[in-house]
Batch of 2 targets.
Target 1
Amino acid sequence: MTSSRVGEADLLRRVAESQALVRIKRSPRNADRIDGIVVGVGSKWALIADTGDAGFFEGWVAIRVKDVVKVKKDSSFRERFAQTQPEWPPTAPANLDLDTTAGLLNGMSAISSLLAIEQERRFHSQMAWIGVVDEVTRRWLWLHEVRPNATWRKRPLGYKLRRITKVFIANRYLTALAAIAGTEPTP
């Protein structure tokens, strides 16, 4: 399965219908691989129920449809194990907008206490910015960030919507960080 023969969105929709565990390769070259089950595809974003190394569910990951380079069915035991988990079969959260970046960010922030974003085209290493959505405008995300030591920054920082390539929520790291950081401080 590669996107060169079939449009990325069509390929992802077929994979979503099959509920198969897949490995997704994305551009740019430094973008990390996504392993999981595609549960939703919009005009801009695809939502994946992320699976860890052994097939445990690890939250939700949204990736830009246009960045998908290759989709390959996972042939390991992980899919069979995922089917034994209480989250099986994974389904997309209700009313999540996969057609706009602003809608995706607002929807995902309503689901989880912390949200993480990546800008893989801009940076050559895996960097995630984690926090609470303060505001989403037509072109910017204002994120009130929590640091890796579970302390909050004083003010929200801005990120251009068009540069965001990946959004994720509800994995074990974010859950643990939220538990220690507590609620964001009031300005």
Target 2
Amino acid sequence: MNKTQAKQITGGLSDTTKLPCFSFNLSALHCNIGSKLTDIKNSVCYGCYALKEFYAKYGHVHKMKYKTMLIKGSKWTEAMIHLIKNQGKTKDNKFFRWFDSGDVQGMEHLKKIVEIAVALPTIKFWMPTKEYQLIADYRKMYGNFPDNLVVRLSAPMIGKTLKTKQFLTSSVNGKGFDCIAPKQSNQCLKCRMCWNSKVKNINYKFH
């Protein structure tokens, strides 16, 4: 398998200006929980950025809907491993983010993400998600996630921080380690705290 084939099978990786690494995105229209929050005022998904502005202007919403369909392909996991392993050196190739838009689609998808982390132990993965029950069900059935896969449950409402001792979390205008990106042109630069499993909650500024 080469890169061209892997991109066709998966829809390719994403490259955002904020992140220090490559990432993967899906259509926010296909978020199981997030799509329900888009109509709720003061939710972190209200007026979702991934359904407008840059994403809508360049047709990314529709392109990412197609990427969601590709996940069910038999070679998707193999192709993702190939892309992430050979992502190049234009960015920090020791880190990777799942979902700069969109969310995990179900148990089979989550199991594929875990398989990818296991296959690439030298890469640190970070996955924010609002699929709380799915994450809890996975832990109950299969145990802990690999050490190189940091899963954070994202608080649904602005100004709220999830109260849990069992999972890592993130919030918007809540309490915890404050993301420093707003202080450095909205970029991570050298910061890797979102990938740090010792940080209980990452708090982002609403924008």
